[in-house]
Amino acid sequence: MEDDLVLEIPTDVRSIEHAVEYVMQRCQTCEAYRKRLRWNFRVGLTEALTNAMLYGNEHDPSKRVRVEVALQNGRLEARITDQGGGFDPSAIPDPTEGENIRKSGGRGLYLMRQLLDEVSYNDRGNQVTLVLRLEQGSALKGGAQA
Amino acid sequence: MGFQVSQNGDATLVEVEGQLIVGNRQELKQRVLEQLEGGDRKFVIDFSSTGYIDSSGLGVLVSLSKKIREQGGELRLSSLNEDLRTLFELTKLDTLFRITDTKEEALEGF
């Protein structure tokens, strides 16, 4: 993935909202796709950053989360990498099944999978790639580094 | 971004302003549990001024609902916009909560 935008943010949940807002401001698309961008992508990115900070980096403020965003051929990709040991996404139960509905956790990955077109992890399980398909001609504003 | 807590008869109304996310969910939990420990049993959380709820926010609502039910009370939710209602439907949490269109409707029904 050739990145159009790269962010390195500290493990501090207060920074999630600002990071998501920054990425959203850099993404441009037409009206027909704006809803998917401003809702589906925002939710997915927020959940990915939350997982990276809480479960990946385990709240450790000395660790960082890397966000790489690329938009090519109508395909918006965000790759979020934490500095934790990784996890097995297949081990996360479906939060909508049976008694899982009454559990307080376990919905982040599920929401990502429901709202994005593709969600994949690296083998180690510390890097998630989110893909949202938009229309051709969508673009990111400005330069590559932030 | 914050929480406005008020009394409506014997019901407690909590209005969520801005977002309910990982960064402020504990504050909501603390505010509601204080009321619960003080004897309140009927709760309405209103989202008419809420733009976003993340999975952590959904989780705290589930947790609070359970604690309130254990004390013989009930937590109702009101005024979810279309996007927020979608989150509840996707996660099937719309089956766990009584959700009304307005806070007045939720309060009247208690």
SSE inventory with pairings:
The complex is a heterodimer of chains A (146) and B (110).
Chain A: E1 5-10, H1 16-26, E2 27-28, H2 31-56, E3 64-72, E4 75-81, H3 108-115, E5 118-121, E6 127-133, E7 139-140
Helix pairs in contact in A: 1-2, 2-3
Chain B: E1 2-8, E2 11-20, H1 25-37, E3 42-46, E4 50-53, H2 55-70, E5 74-78, H3 82-90, E6 98-100, H4 103-108
Parallel strand pairs in B: 2-3, 2-4, 3-5, 5-6
Antiparallel strand pairs in B: 1-2
Detailed description of the structure:
The complex is a heterodimer of chains A (about 150) and B (about 110). Chain A has about 150 residues and is an alpha+beta fold. Chain A has one domain: 2-Layer Sandwich (Heat Shock Protein 90). Chain A has three helices and seven strands. In chain A, helix 2 (about 30-55) packs antiparallel against helix 3. Chain B has one domain: STAS domain (Transcription Regulator spoIIAA, 2-Layer Sandwich), CATH 3.30.750.24. In chain B, about 40% of the residues lie in helices and about 30% in strands. Chain B has helices at about 25-35, 55-70, 80-90, 105-110, and strands spanning about 1-10, 10-20, 40-45, 50-55, 75-80, 100. Chain B starts with a strand and ends with a helix. The mean pLDDT of chain B is about 95. Classes of the chains: A alpha+beta (about 150), B alpha/beta (about 110). The interface of A and B includes residues 13, 17 and 54 of A.
